[in-house]
Amino acid sequence: QVQLVESGGGLVQAGGSLRLSCAASGTIFRLYAWGWYRQAPGKQRELVATIISGGSTNYADSVKGRFTISRDNTKNTVYLQMNSLEPEDTAIYYCNAPKDYQSGYPQYFGWGQGTQVTVSS
Fold first, then answer.
1. Is 68 exposed, middle or buried (0-12, 13-18, 19+ CB in 10 A)?
2. pLDDT tens readout for residues 51-93
3. Which of these, 95, 74, 69, 80, lies nearest to 30 by C-alpha position?
4. What one-character-per-residue DSSP string does 46-109 give?
5. Which residues are registered as beta bridge partners of 38?
6. What is the CA radius of gyration of the chain?
7. What is the mean pLDDT of the chain?
8. 59, 67, 57, 113: which is closest to 89 by C-alpha?
């Protein structure tokens, strides 16, 4: 059974940085594209960024130039470095493996518990 465990969230002031991690177990991590998603209160979950097995990346327009997705296949972990954070980035952040890495949907696995990111103004 695949488990996705997100961590690294917290409370940060606008302009600050956070680094999120997602550890995946129960699957052959290196074979999949991976993505970060977020869900703000009262909104639908949206795609933030994806990375394929070869390392190519794709970002939502709202985070381009501020966020960087990376992966470590030896640790079965995908990361999201978030810089220049804005209050609009406040959300619960999740990871998953998308079947289509450009659209981010649908996903192969069930969702983890996510990690809360709160950006104060």
1. middle
2. 999 889 999 999 999 999 999 999 999 999 999 999 999 999 9
3. 74
4. EEEEEE-TTS-EEE-TTTTTTEEEEEETTTTEEEEEE-S--GGG-EEEEEE-BSSTTT--SBSS
5. 46, 93
6. 13
7. 96
8. 67
